[in-house]
């Protein structure tokens, strides 16, 4: 039986796994717009708090919203560049007005978008989930080397030692530990890695000492929203991208937990995201989407229930209200985070491969669906300049390898399915024609 203390430990593990990714978005956007230290403190704190609120919206299942999966929500990375553009060329008010409008858009189209379930057979979901994991692995690898490839000491021996020590600890616990300790491999690896990193001079307590003790969320902290049509259209496109990516995460979690994701669940999941995005705009944070790195953690821990995620949501809200406590999570060295992230992202990719192993690749079109979708998705991730000459609106879709894979896989599956139906109809017509021939004596 999963006790509250065990569920809390697992929840903390989920928080640590996604914390760096969650605070990265406000740090990037706030830094680009030119927020001062006080504004940045608010931005990061309210972001973490709203991550917890957004996660709770997905966990509390009711007749209107909530997908009911062990999903953790965080800020959508694909929204960073468009929001920086809106914030710097239009205004901060236009940035938050476009976020609120995009959340309303998601609420309105949730029912229609949920009908795409039939376009996600195993050949599509397996391919998309595989690419989600593979495209995220380089993020973990970069952190293993110290965080920035452009840094002079990137890939130094001390970073590599700490990264692979973390990997070894997680691997050792997974292979040799039993019971509940087995499911805490990631958090134990992060803690031991951070302790070792402190002796190597890679841990600074400055973020903890500088953070305030308490912070109250304030609606419209940066002023009233401004609803500007071009900014709204841009964020609507980003919303569609996020919904496609979230769909892949939902199906991945469904596969891990042994649940069949139905149209009604998808609709409630999209509505919860839309509501979270509206609240994000009101409290001056950013759009939210399902975090794929936590899929690997659910699979690795072997705990499929929502109970640990309730604790994770609670921890996020507390961390958002008490920045000094939350700042402890920011002192984890980059190589330690990288080692853990590399494993988690690899687990996501493995889950996709597991789904594809059940697909008949000899069936017409399936092999080409996987080959082209993987090729384009990974290709765009490695060489994002491929579509740099296209209009900015088009690049919203072509600049994300996960979305390119999704669009390619869905489109090819529709074409392949149509071709099989057409071929089947032609065969049936011939058979019917033969049965209609007069009998010969």
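^ structure tokens above, recovered residues below v
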């Amino acid at each position: 039986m999963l006790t509250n203390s065990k569920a809390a430990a697992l929840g903390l593990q989920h928080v640590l796994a996604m914390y760096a990714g969650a605070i990265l978005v406000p740090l990037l956007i706030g830094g680009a717009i030119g927020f001062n230290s006080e504004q940045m403190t608010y931005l990061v704190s309210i972001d973490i708090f709203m991550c917890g609120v957004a996660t709770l919206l997905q966990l509390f299942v009711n007749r209107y919203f909530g997908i009911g999966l062990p999903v953790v929500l965080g800020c959508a990375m694909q929204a960073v560049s468009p929001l920086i553009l809106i914030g710097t060329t239009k205004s901060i008010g236009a940035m938050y007005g476009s976020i609120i409008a995009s959340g309303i858009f998601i609420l309105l189209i949730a029912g229609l978008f949920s009908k795409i379930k039939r376009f996600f057979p195993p050949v599509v979901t397996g391919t998309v989930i595989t690419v989600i994991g593979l495209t995220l692995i380089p993020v973990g690898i970069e952190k293993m080397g110290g965080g920035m490839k452009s840094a002079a000491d990137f890939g130094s021996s001390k970073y590599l030692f700490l990264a692979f020590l973390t990997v070894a600890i997680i691997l050792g616990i997974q292979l040799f530990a039993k019971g509940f300790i087995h499911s805490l491999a990631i958090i134990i690896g992060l803690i031991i890695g951070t302790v070792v990193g402190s002796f190597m001079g890679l841990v600074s307590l400055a973020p903890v000492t500088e953070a305030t003790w308490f912070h109250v969320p304030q609606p419209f902290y940066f002023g009233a929203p401004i609803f500007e049509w071009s900014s709204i259209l841009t964020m609507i496109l980003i919303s569609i991208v996020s919904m496609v990516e979230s769909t892949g995460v939902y199906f991945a979690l469904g596969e891990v937990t042994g649940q069949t994701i139905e149209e009604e669940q998808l609709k409630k999941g999209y509505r919860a995201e839309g509501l979270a995005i509206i609240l994000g705009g009101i409290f001056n944070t950013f759009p939210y989407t399902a975090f794929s790195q936590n899929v690997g953690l659910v699979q690795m821990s072997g705990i499929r229930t929502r109970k640990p995620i309730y604790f994770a949501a609670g921890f996020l809200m507390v961390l958002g209200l008490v920045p000094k406590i939350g700042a402890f999570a920011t002192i984890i060295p980059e190589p330690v985070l990288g080692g853990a992230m590399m494993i988690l992202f690899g687990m996501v990719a493995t889950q996709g491969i597991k789904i594809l192993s059940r697909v008949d690749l000899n069936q017409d079109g399936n092999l080409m669906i996987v080959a082209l979708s993987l090729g384009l998705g990974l290709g765009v991730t490695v060489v994002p300049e491929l579509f740099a000459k296209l209009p900015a609106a088009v690049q919203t879709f072509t600049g994300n390898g996960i979305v390119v894979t999704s669009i390619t896989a869905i489109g090819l599956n529709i074409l392949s399915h149509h071709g099989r139906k057409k071929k089947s109809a032609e065969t049936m017509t011939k058979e019917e024609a033969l049965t209609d021939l007069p009998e010969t004596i």
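Confidence is low (pLDDT under 50) at residues 432-441.
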